[in-house]
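Support case: user asked for a sample of complex input and structure output to validate their parser. Sending the pair below.
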Amino acid sequence: MPSPHAPLLSPSLLAGDHAALAASVRAVEDLGLSWLHVDIMDGHFVPNLTFGPETLAALRRHGAKLFFDTHLMLSEPHRYLEAFAKAGANLISIHIEPAYDHAAALARIRALGCRNGIVLNPGTPAEAIEPLLGQVDLVLVMTVQPGFGGQAFRPEMIAKIRQIDAWRRERGLDFRLEVDGGIDLANAPLCRAAGTDTFVAGTSFFKAADRAAYAAAIAAL
Ligand code: DX5
Ligand code: ZN
């Protein structure tokens, strides 16, 4: 049985040209895509640094209409929710691993007018987020250890995706189920069969010889 949602591609800006982010956004929009994945790293929760709220705000000022799927890889995400909502985020996803009031942060994201998401690292069991499933718009299963683009997909994450999809069906929930890390046209069908409906792709999308064909292949899953 397919997921309740049609497959959707969320290209990751991390793999775009950081000196020409607006051009990368336009390239995504010109393909008729609707989502853009924006990776925010703090050099603490993950060993890398990327963008801040001002980056999103600037992209909006440059006319970006895309749905900003904002992935916060921060040790204290609850401190930055308002800033990202104001800057133009449409969805804000936060990790389960750091210690803070996850339920309160998820509720706050919705109160700020955004959709919310909960994220799990490869080493985190599905059970860690299970109590929150009724309160989220999206679950993001990391298929690499977060921090860098261009890493290899971890096939052992398929079982976790399947488990979360099973809970979604049993409980009649309709959150989106997203994968992020090492996704390409070879492993995306395996993720789809396990219940994924939302596909983040950085390297494989931006380096594709034919991005339109890449996007069409995801849409056809
Ligand atoms: C990794 C980020 C990903 C990254 C994916 O920490 O969360 O969104 O951009 O890049 P690829 O698709 O190259 O693995
Ligand atoms: Zn990401």
